[in-house]
UniProtKB/TrEMBL annotation:
Residues 547-608, 622-692 are annotated as: Disordered. The active site is at H132 (proton donor). It comes from Latimeria chalumnae. Residues 594-604 have a biased composition (Polar residues). This is Double-strand break repair protein.
Length: 707
């Protein structure tokens, strides 16, 4: 009887089957001799699971790629795997009801890939972008857009506006089941937090029969609180949502947990590869097989078999006074021997578990975190790692030494201590962002070295772009942009040409910009766009002077510009063949190159000479005058409490049902008042088949009040 019930729901024509995965990070450590293929092997397994279970589609929660500009090997391997598993003659059994030109408006082919007559798709893939593979550059493109243009992935959830976000769902129907799929790609957490507080985020709903839709929302943001506004509280999300798929967090908590305040469920699939040697990554990795029928859902956890095993252990030396005495001259040798035993124990555990799964890589990841507070000294990690070179996948960073230091308040000549910015760096696996480090540095440094013209927020964003997105002009363009804004302000104020007066006006101007965070965000965005435009301009100039576009065998005349010499140099020099080939292909498609006057022939060429830009000094600002501007800005504070549920059951059946006021078809996201809400519960059938992992349990219908 149990098997018949299971078969009924698996093959029901109204049951959606969706494979859920996030944070695959293709290309992570691809140059490592041992771990280089880990991400590709696991991605192959994920797609094979989808194929074996004959899912309707795959839903990815961001960070498909680890690098913003993935290598050719990574992109090639990704396309190879998608073609292998997601293309074929298997029929698609659901249809799209919404306006696809809105859902995929950023694509040159604004429709779902399986409806393209030139493609033969068996498993559609829907994905939002993450913070690792988000759109960047002058054209705001990302690696997912390449896959989307190739017809392999349906990229949705893009929002480029910094003033307002309207999230329009992809409406799907299979039999009698209807899903409203909402998506929001990665946005800087502080900006999105502020937009939620200011009610600038709106989730659009179907006007007709809104009670019958199962509302599924996928996003890629910080769920854990990393700062006052550097995360997104669950309470910010609309309470008509039934299930939230939360990407970005790597710890696997895929079993849906209920938010008792908003009355929806949250599933955090976690990453499929270990990218940081923290305890959260040591939890077994899973993907989810989500079944939806009507307003009922079921999440089946499927463990990944090809993920490299990771073991982590902690040692606090001060907790073993009977073994280690800091005064003993041989205590360091004893500590090293003790750590060796701990690592050997983890290796023995790995060997035992490896016998049960032949698909796992042979060499595990090992991490031993040693707190040497209390007068102890660390030993040589290089010498220690030599003992395990052929037995572990990460011999260079097996040992991590750290200690807690008590900071003493010192006045006068105080140096910046970065240890206070990182409290127990590896204790909880939190990642310190570059922009946070820059901001904290300038907020705590001495007054005479603090920023007086630039803002900490802007500088932090620029450094973040430089580090993460390789925008080499980001910092320079930010400095230029904020300098120009300050000069313009001084002109309009008719400031006297006195150093003291200038300093005072600059200080007031800087304070007013710090208060108006929205305007400051716009300034930073404009500066980053300038940097991206500069890079794009350089790439276009490089392709014009490429040796593939001219014949350089012709001897140059005496009137030739000797300062412009096309070169066939090695390495990644400008004008290389790779760039030229790509750009030439683009040009043949009819793309127009603006702002460059060129004349290219097969026999000769003379490149344009671009004079360097000249920056104005502050004193140059007094040569002209203009009107007086007025700048005002307000900031809002918002505090939330998050309910943290750390359950990790192997199988979780969660079902939700809702009735929403049909008067509202467009609702801004905001925190809901607890008054007027009717609690929603989940009813579990009390019958003999309650242990069936595929059984769809009934849920109580409820009514939630509108605004």
């Amino acid at each position: 009887k149990c098997m018949n019930h299971e078969h009924q729901f698996r093959d029901n024509e109204s049951t959606f089957k969706i494979l859920i995965a996030t944070d695959i990070h293709l290309g992570y450590m691809e140059k490592d001799a041992i771990r280089g293929n880990d991400t590709f092997v696991t991605f192959d397994e994920i797609l094979q699971i989808a194929q074996d279970n004959e899912v309707d589609f795959i839903l990815l929660g961001g960070d498909l790629f680890h690098d913003n500009k993935p290598s050719r090997k990574t992109v090639h391997s990704c396309i190879e795997l998608l073609r292998k598993h997601c293309m074929g003659d298997h029929p698609i059994e659901f249809e799209i009801l919404s306006d696809q030109s809105v859902n995929f408006g950023f694509s040159k082919f604004p429709w779902v890939n399986y409806q393209d007559l030139n493609l033969n798709i068996s498993i559609p893939v829907f994905s939002v972008h993450g913070n690792h593979d988000d759109p960047t550059g002058a054209d705001s493109l990302c690696a997912l857009d390449i896959l989307s243009c190739a017809g392999l992935v349906n990229h949705f959830g893009r929002s480029m506006s910094v003033e307002k976000i309207d999230i329009s769902p992809i409406l799907m129907q299979k039999g009698k089941t209807k899903i409203a799929l909402y998506g929001l790609g990665s946005i800087p957490d502080e900006r999105l937090y502020r937009m939620f507080v200011n009610k600038q985020v709106t989730m659009l709903r179907p006007k007709e029969d809104d009670e019958s839709w199962f509302n599924l929302f996928v996003l890629h943001q910080n769920r854990s609180k990393h700062g006052a506004t550097n995360y997104i509280p669950e309470q910010f999300l609309d309470d008509f949502i039934d299930l939230v798929i939360w990407g970005h967090e790597h710890e696997c908590k895929i079993a849906p947990t209920r938010n008792e305040q908003q009355l929806f469920y949250v599933s955090q699939p976690g990453s499929s590869v270990v990218t940081s040697l923290s305890p959260g990554e040591a939890i077994k990795k899973h993907v989810g097989l989500l079944r939806i029928k009507g307003k009922k859902m079921n999440m089946q956890k499927i463990p990944l078999q090809t993920v490299r095993r990771f073991y982590v252990d902690d040692v606090v030396l001060s907790d073993h006074p009977d073994l280690f005495n800091p005064e003993n001259p041989k205590v360091t040798q004893k500590i090293e021997g003790f750590c060796t035993e701990r690592v050997e124990t983890m290796l023995e555990t790995a060997e035992r578990e490896c016998l049960d799964n032949s698909k796992q890589p042979d060499k595990p990841l090992i991490r031993l975190r040693v707190d040497y507070s209390g007068g102890f000294e660390p030993f040589s990690t290089l010498r220690f790692s030599q003992k395990f070179v052929n037995r572990v996948a990460n011999p260079k960073d097996i040992i991590h030494f750290f200690r807690h230091r008590e900071q003493k308040d010192r006045k006068g000549d105080e140096q910046i201590n970065f240890d206070k910015f990182v409290t127990c760096p590896a204790a909880d696996g939190m990642t310190l962002r570059v922009e946070d480090l820059v901001k904290q540095y300038f907020e705590t440094t001495e007054k005479n070295v603090q920023l007086s013209l630039l803002t900490e927020r802007g500088m932090g964003e620029a450094v973040q772009e430089f580090v993460d997105k390789e925008e080499k002009d980001a910092i320079e363009e930010l400095v230029k942009f904020q300098l120009e804004k300050t000069q313009k302000f001084l002109k309009e104020r008719h400031t006297d040409a006195l150093e003291e007066k200038i300093d005072e006006e600059v200080r007031h101007f800087r304070e007013s910009r710090q208060k108006n965070t929205a305007e400051e965000d716009e300034e930073v965005r404009e500066a980053m766009n300038r940097a991206r435009a500069n890079r794009s301009e350089e790439e276009r100039v490089c392709f014009v002077i490429s040796d593939d576009e001219m014949d350089i065998s012709e001897p140059r005349g005496e009137d030739s510009d000797s300062s412009v010499v096309p070169s066939r140099g090695r390495g990644r020099a400008r004008g290389g063949r790779g760039q030229s080939a790509a750009a030439r292909g683009t040009s043949r498609r009819g793309r127009v190159i603006s702002n460059i006057q060129t004349s290219v022939s097969s026999r000769s060429y003379k490149a344009p000479v671009v004079p360097p830009a000249k920056n104005m000094s502050i004193m140059d600002a007094f040569k002209s005058s203009s009107r007086h501007p007025s700048r005002t800005g307000t900031t809002k504070n918002y505090a939330e409490v998050i309910v943290d549920d750390d359950s990790d059951m192997e199988e979780e059946d969660s079902f939700c049902s809702s009735k929403v006021d049909q008067r509202y078809s467009k609702r801004p996201s905001s925190k809901r008042s607890s008054q007027g809400q009717i609690s929603r519960g989940v009813h579990f059938d009390n019958n003999d088949d309650s242990d069936d992992e595929y059984l769809f349990l009934n849920s109580l219908a409820l009514t939630r009040n509108g605004y």
